[in-house]
Amino acid sequence: MNTVNDALHEKLRALEAIFLQKLPGKCEEIVSALENLAASPDDTGLQHDLHRYLHTMAGSAGTFGFEALGRQARVYESRLKPWVKDGVMPAQEFEQFRQQLRGYMQAVIAGETPDAVPQPEDNDDILQSHEPARENRLIYLVDQDAEQQQAISSQLQHFGFEVVWIAHPRDLARAVGARRPDAIVIELSFPDDQQAGAEEIRRLEQLKRFRIPTIFISASPTFTSRMLAVRAHGDGYFTKPVDVVGLTDRIEGLLRRGSHTGYRVMIIDDDVVTAHYYSTVLRNAGMEVHLLHDPAQVLAAISDFRPELMLMDIYMPGCSGIELSKLIRQDNSYVDIPIVFLSGEVDPERQLEAVRAGADDFIAKPVRSEYLVSSVISRAERYRTLRALIMRDGLTGLLNHSAIKERLQSEMLQAQRNRSPLALAMIDLDSFKKINDSYGHATGDQVLRTLSRLLQQRLRRTDIVGRYGGEEFAVIFPDTSALKARAVLDEVRQAFGRISQHAENGSFHVTFSAGIADLEQASDADALFEVADAAMYVSKQAGRNRITLA
């Protein structure tokens, strides 16, 4: 088992220990609710409390490996459920139920059930979450052509990659053994062997027993050369001169493959330990997780966190999951967010009611970790894909005009609530019409893609980038002053000016002008766009290739 899985299992074992540590208290909670109901059997609130406690125990016990306890809790829940539904507690049957349930819970408290194990030391610190480290973007460029190597390396470095040059394939295995790269870009043919690049990649796979994303470059556009790359398990093929923006796009796609970093999942569950358990599983799969234990805070939490999927239980204090789902769906902004019920509910009618309320899926507790991850990924990925079709610009992949305006409005509201700074930059390519006229619209599109890729690469993960229209771009800098935003954007401006743009009739360089405004200049999104846009035109009038603060 690898180190990552070892760490995950260690965390899950610790959470199991926490569950076991809290188990006597949970059982006493059930016994107390049982005795309260026995004293007031017609109290519907007490009926629902006991049912909810049993429902939670049925789901969480199985999750943490105590299958017998989970099954028995589900039996008691099933016996209680029709009485709660009718609101009538038959005296003789309930008394028998009470004696059996109380006896079983007391046995669990005493450690007499088959599920009981010795209690471990306190492990509350495991509940602290840590954001995954940002990926290392190391590229090995294998090529004997020093001039081509320099051209590709300098361009990739502008896009934020670390590039290591390896002159010959025979040195690749040693380099991989010392430090494994995120991707390999390799020449297909070398003077001493026309298939050296392909053969070395095949040998490396057999030697190291793992695959590294690999892109071949070659002067040959033939079917035979491309087939060599395919049979060496190449993930891409670029002919010379290499389209570095296209190469960057392909590398980014390969690095994202199999990675679920960034899926934002909100878990709404009053069972704290179980929620932390599922949170740990999902975070280990690379997702961002927000835990919410109070359903009353859901709308504010959605606005701040912007989840791409919501997991919730059906039974919670204060309101049911079904009611909460209906409440969320009342807001047009949230009608498309996937809602998945993660619950021990097995009644088909109740599950159907949940779906009618707006749920997209129903996962029964307990659930295997791998199944939970797979289910969440499939739903969140579909949501992200559909949102991208609606919210993304087709050429650059950035947020489109409507989407960036919507995000600015949302970010401004959050900044005003938190009393935190926020800056907006408007960017416009200099002399873009001349580029289209001189080199053609295809080259102009390539310039737009280059800037969009550079903005995504060089800005911070928290910054939000959109194509405002034509050659104009907008960048939202949350929790950032205008002065700091200018410093960050100025590094991008300088890097962009150094990138060589290629066309059939020669190479050229492009610059951009920008204006930046912050919340001190405007209190609503439209006004802030106008102020930043005016500052950008000041940059144009002052000679271009500069950034002006409003």
TrEMBL record:
* Domain GGDEF span(s) in chain numbering: 420-550
Q: Which reaction does it catalyse?
A: 2 GTP = 3',3'-c-di-GMP + 2 diphosphate
- Which PROSITE patterns is this protein grouped with? GGDEF, HPT, RESPONSE_REGULATORY
UniProt keyword list:
Phosphoprotein, Two-component regulatory system
Q: What is its EC number?
A: 2.7.7.65
Span of domain HPt:
12-108
Q: Which residues carry this modification: Phosphohistidine?
A: 55
- Quote the InterPro entries the UniProt record gives: CheY-like_superfamily (IPR011006), Diguanylate_Cyclase (IPR050469), GGDEF_dom (IPR000160), HPT_dom_sf (IPR036641), Nucleotide_cyclase (IPR029787), Rev_trsase/Diguanyl_cyclase (IPR043128), Sig_transdc_His_kin_Hpt_dom (IPR008207), Sig_transdc_resp-reg_receiver (IPR001789)
PTM sites of type 4-aspartylphosphate: 313
So which domain of life are we looking at? Bacteria
Name the top EC class.
transferase
Q: Which SUPFAM superfamilies match?
A: CheY-like, Histidine-containing phosphotransfer domain, HPT domain, Nucleotide cyclase
- Domain Response regulatory per the UniProt entry, residue ranges: 138-255, 264-380
UniProt KW Magnesium keyword: no
SMART domains on file: GGDEF, REC
UniProt cross-references to PANTHER family, sorted A to Z = DIGUANYLATE CYCLASE DGCM-RELATED (PTHR45138:SF9), REGULATORY COMPONENTS OF SENSORY TRANSDUCTION SYSTEM (PTHR45138)
The protein's name in its UniProt record = diguanylate cyclase
Organism annotation:
Undibacterium squillarum
